[in-house]
Amino acid sequence: MEKRYALGIYRSFVMLALRRPSVIPALLGAGWAFRRRGWYRKPPFLPLPSASFLRWRLDTAYGDPGARPPPDEAERFLRWAARMRRGR
User: For the chain, N or C: smaller number of CB within 10 Å?
Assistant: First the structure.
């Protein structure tokens, strides 16, 4: 269940990137910033956030761990997060 949920979220981010390619650098930066510890030890060997982190993050943002952020809101968050990382 956790992996299926994460795949759905990842798929929505891929669709966002296909519709708005300018968000790709922000998306990659967020993926790296939120990557799961030890991502290089377990398949699929991608630096992606864990499903439990995604559920927690969406629960704190929307009050529902199964929420799916609307594409416009996800894009705003990704661009904001990129600006915050650059400002450090």
Answer: C
Res. 2 pLDDT band, cuts 50 70 90: low
pLDDT for 1 equals: 55
Task: Kindly report, residue by residue over 22-32, the tens digit of the pLDDT.
Answer: 999 999 999 89
Question: Could you tell me the residue range of the domain that residue 63 belongs to?
Answer: 2-87
**pLDDT the model gives residue 16:** 94
Number of structural domains in the chain: 1
Residues 65 and 67: their CA atoms lie apart, in Å, by 6
For 17, other C-beta atoms within 10 Å of its C-beta total 17
Contact predicate 30/81, CB 8 Å? yes
pLDDT at residue number 60:
93
Q: Which residue has the tokens 């398949």?
A: 43
Count of positions (residues) in the chain: 88
Q: Which two tokens stand for residue 66?
A: 């199964």
